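Bumping with the actual sequence this time:
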Amino acid sequence: MSNVLTTAALIVAAGRGHRAGDGLPKQYRALPEANGETVLAATLRAFLSHKGVQHLCVVIHPDDVKLYEDSLKQLSCIDNIEYTFGGETRQESVLNGLQALSKQAPKQVLIHDGARPFVSAELISRCLTGLGSAAGAIPALEVTDTLKRAEQGTITETVSREDLWRAQTPQAFRFDAILAAHASAPNLPGLTDDAAIAELAGLPLAIVAGDARNIKLTHEADFTSQAPNLLPRTGSTLLPRTGSGYDVHRLGEIGSADTILLGGVPIAHNQELIGHSDADVALHAITDALLGALAQGDIGDHFPPSDAAHKNRPSRDFLAHAVTLATQAKAQITHIDLTLICEQPKIGPHREAMRAKIAQMTCLDIANVSVKATTTEGLGFTGRGEGIAAQSMVTLLVPAPQTQGASQ
């Protein structure tokens, strides 16, 4: 093995997982419908199969050596895996792992929770690409639910969700920088992930689109085959589905804002889009296409325009709801194609920003999001500048329905 590695992965698997109920620590439990494969084996497999990762270090509990070795038996190639023992806290365990990796001298490291077995190759690549000139890059999902603070069972405050994100792993770092940050960090209960320790050290961190399917198995119910968060395993039969969406919003005189929203991106314009919500015609078309692929009706079924609660509601909420429905259906969104039909504004200068925003909201790699624009050569309501239309196609992979037996 080379004395210098480009990328190593540190898998943190030393916890006891008390919230998962009695039985084996959750990382050593079998995944439902996975032919006995453990959570840890599935997690390791994701990194072992990624061409950008050359070495793995697994942090385990001293009592779990036999369980760890049994999990490795489920993998075909384990030459580039080592293990070390964890500490009393996650923070101590990560430091132990980083110190064990220091003899390999990797340039960068991915730190990942051993109980997140559904991490995709695309997400790993996105984290590594996100490093760029930053010291770290973390995947995160935008917060779309209303947040409440409560004391003793009583709500005391509504917390703004603007600029709030739900952090995930793997988190990618320059190895020397995160090792130094961990080595100098105080052991505080608020430092619940490695990004928090990097922030404390003043390291610049980038954010990349997370993946709603990259869940952390936490509770006992997560290990039942009926758990809505569990995904179809490799080898399950997945069938393609395609949904289409179409939406139109009128353009009117400028109101209080001098921008319109298209694909989640504010764009300067001398008119405003009229609608019950924020009138983002692009996100509406994508949402309807996703709901169509899921055979779950349309936006109006889920967010009736007659309901005053949805007045001026951000369209990203509609799309987030559809993405959640896809996750619950164990469906994988694989591609989004969007076409905007308008004379103005010109879409070209904003195309990449829209692709990035839509990818972020749907947990897709930007390579799987297409944004196009066209005009109607001056014909019709779009040609006259009276409105903007959008159409979208969304492709999913969904589990094949279980056969209940031939009909008689």
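The tokens above came from a reply further down the thread. Residues 238-399 form a domain with the 60s Ribosomal Protein L30; Chain: A; fold (CATH 3.30.1330.50).
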